[in-house]
Amino acid sequence: MFAEGRFLDEKQFLISTPIPSSLIIGSEYCNFTSPTSKNLVLAFSDRIEVYEWRGNTLTKELRFLPGCNLAYIKCIRNKKNESDLIFVINSEFEFSIFGFNNGEIYFAMKGNIISNYKRIREQGVQIAVCPKQGKIAITGMDQNLYVIDRFERTDRKNAEFIKGPLDVVDMSFIDYSKFKSETRIAMLVHYESCLHYEVYELDYRTCSLRNVLSIKDIPIHCTKLYCPQIYNDGTTFILGGVCIYIVRGGNFSEKKLTVNNLERIELDAVIDNSIISIAPFNENPSKFAFCDRAGVLFTADILTNGIHVEIIGNINPTAFLNHLENNIFFASSMIKDSILFSVESNTENPQQTNINILDSIPYYGPITDMYMVNEDDQVIGICGGDGKNGFLTLVKHSPTFRCAWEFVAVGLHRFYVVPKDIQYNICFASTLNKTITFVLSTKTGERIEMTFPGFNYESRTLFVSYHPPSETFFQVTDEGVSITNFNDRIFNNCQLLNDDDLIVVSTNNDGVFVVANGNTIYIYNLNDEKNSVVGEYRFDKKITSIDLLKAKGFNSLAYFVVIFEFVPNIHVFKINIDDGIKVEHVAESTIENIGIVNDVKWYCGSDEKDSDCIVVCDFSGKAYFIDFNVESGFKSNYVVVSVGDGALETFECSVKGQRAIFFSCENAGFSPWRRWNSDIPKLNINTSLQAYSYYDNDISYIIHMEHNTAKVSYLTDEKEISYDKLEIDYDLTRFAYDSKNNVLLAVAVKGSEADYYEASMHDFDLLKPDYGPRIHFPFYELSLDDEKKEIAEDIKNCTMENSYIVLVSLDHMKVEAMYKLPPFEIALCIKPIKIPSHLGSFFVVGTAVEKQDLSQPEITDGRLLLIEVKGDYQKTIEIRAEKSVKSPVFSISTIDDKVIATMLNSVRMFKCTLDDFKLKHSKYEFLRANRIEIYGEKAIVGDAMRSVSILTTKKDNVDVYSRLTDSRGLTAVHIFDDECYIRCVENCIHILTECQTEEFRSLQISKMLYIGVQVNKIIHGHIGKVDLSKYAGIGKCLTMATLEGSLMTLFEIDPKMYEFLKIIEGKIYDRLPRFFESHEPSEILRIKGKNQFVNTDYFKYFMTLPFETRKDILRLEGIPPYPCTNEVFDRYETLENILSLWSQLF
What we know:
By secondary structure, the protein is mainly beta. It has 6 domains: 24-112; 128-266, Methylamine Dehydrogenase, Chain H (7 Propeller), CATH 2.130.10.10; 275-363; 400-724, Methylamine Dehydrogenase, Chain H; 740-752 and 799-924, 7 Propeller (Methylamine Dehydrogenase, Chain H), CATH 2.130.10; 1022-1145, no CATH class.
């Protein structure tokens, strides 16, 4: 190891990715791995993943690392007896067409798009594929169209340039084989305030497009083209928010067409947002689904005399929609989670439909800010948002929750497992109106459907248990109680229940059961083989929760704790049956300020010295732990733990043999016995539907319900990254943490609906039908006099953006307070600050103010605000001081009571008091200073126009220490240590070091790390408690948050260890599939200086390969000794163990 990260030579770096990029830039459902397979191919910004569709789940089969930043993918359908191909293009405009055969990837074509404009346009890449003629059209890089012909013009390596329209909204090849054989391409082109529908023929001789049809004045709300395969005359559907236009084959013979000549179909419901994705049904091309920008899903059926459009429901805003089969879809979102879902008919109302989420792929971006919330446990907070889809997430290491097996059934409501012996489990699955049973082999996983005498199969099962001594099953349904065993002693419906009242069940795990229904309890003792039914007892109040003591050795039949409806008191009773049933009151306890109680459990102590504990949970997510002894009663003190928000229940489980209490709620967690007053590890799963534990062969299993699926899982002491996420209807740009109150203060922006109004300004010349329900955003009831004037007036009176300061409680993960800034003022930055001799929680906010009284409104001013968080239970935000400045406050950093702010051409230092900001010093040597970070007595300032500067902040002064001047811009800056600084530019990290000349000190770029993603924020530290001592040569580290939703950790690494790992990485890299022509050998990349860091993603990818493949890649020839021990590798297994260790670095 080395001291404080100092090396004899230049610094070397290693990058690990705890959270990979989650931005999906394309999805295709096809037959990729074989002609009969069902694959979902997902393209992320840095990789391609292939999933297999099996039943109700997606299973990851393949993963490819192209080694560059991807831009788009598209499926190329092949013949029925051949697997499909995938077209992929990267951000450097290189493309390839690849397939999969005999377990290996192969490439059908590779090439480039030669364009002087090396940036994707704002509207994105548009790609159209013509499977019949093998043509691919691409636009979105410049004002030209690029065409690839993989059948006829195979001698052309690169895409052929053809001048085309400038602003293409959507395009598609159309089948015109009914009349001619030419390839025609339809485009929706934007011209100022309207669209044109244009159809072109490709002319290779002149490298041009010949226009064969042009229809002007298409309304601006039309955004998508759909060309169904059922037509071969060029028929195209133009989809809009108010209507759908149909271009028929006969229109091609007419001249001077306008939109009024097209067939127009009014929609039954208004689509208030532009349509962004379409998916034809695989089995029926005349039916398709589409989604609008607000996430509303529709289906459309092409009929003989029109199109029938139906609203299905709300999903996440979807950039790519894929129909898998029947009623199953996959929706890829670029701003929220991507989901696999099914569309089901509502059982109660067949006219309505339900959307059931089957699986999801989380999206954690775009990340705009990051903060180390808990330095001891390395808990990191991230925030972001795009289009009023903001989020705030806590990222940390948590124990893993591994699924052993699962069961899927439509409408699954409850699921119970009864271990019969070491070989078989008996399973009970309950839907809303029936129960099914089967036997599961624990060794083979085989399932055998079986029915048992005496069980009620025509009702919903609420509880099932098994008493081994008497081999008796105990079943409670919403109708009654059934008791049966394998000896056919049957007590079917021995007690009818009233399902209008709450039914709760408990057992002492020794044959005694209590069923509470309304205000009555029914008592059963399965140890009495002659008469298992003990009797009943009535209370004055209805029961909401009951639990029996799991302990023996008492004279009474059983003890139980109970909570009555609308009563905060806890009551303990005992049951005696000497002379009939006697229920005696034993003890009572009162909890102050408790909410509505949801659950009560009685846990016996671990030994004689350990008292029992009664845990009471309410609907606010609080758990109350009260010690209790049967002889001495309740103890006066109790512990209150805020577990989460929402209804909470508890049950006992085991983690690696250690007794624990599981907290079942929307964000489940657990706590070891008697350690619940500390932090509760969260599992990032929702167990609010149903959860309980059972033991099988000394293993504690937990069953929980999730989207019609019962998952049987177990807890481990291994750690994995988990997320505690709060979604909010704002875009969060910056935030700061207050450890005293455990709250986050975030800067939030909420855009107005003006952009949605604008999309509705057109197409009001025809009478409107009687529209159905309005979707998500308001739509106007238009008069027939002057519709456009009405809408224009609304737009004029609409505020464009509202800015807020939002206070989020981390105890409950919800917004507790909010402060709205005045109109035309936007908060840009926020930092915590200390005020001497004051113990409150203070923050400084920098804002920008737009001047509206000018001829052209512009941002010229700003403010500094001092905010205090007040209150214990009900927190509030109060403005304590403010200062107006003649510039927007782009970024701030704080040192004790001093504020250093970047303001366009200056950096200023203020001293903060409770009622003022006093200017101490200003430095005017910038053009547009918009980033600042402080480390010790140095500050790094990023100027978006020209420079990166290092400043000293001593003695109330700000002085320039050194500077790098160029015009590359930046997205983030940070100070690595006293000698090394970081600037991030688009997809690259610049490592800056100081160089001294005779005249002045300056900065120089010593390394350029091409990481392929855009870094928006950098902090010191890493995620979670990780034992870094296992990794020899590791030094200081930083965590970087990216636009694509990934978190990356940059480590300083010893040069000798760097050289060793680079040799291993090079061997892996050189065996990767070469997707693009620019994929050069690792040695060439090192010579060119393009690969100057160790990337552990290659190690992770390597460990997923088959053993023989891994052994073939890492041959021992050329492998130097391990730098840590100087061990010479004579066995492959030794080398793989070391590589496996490095692959697990986050």
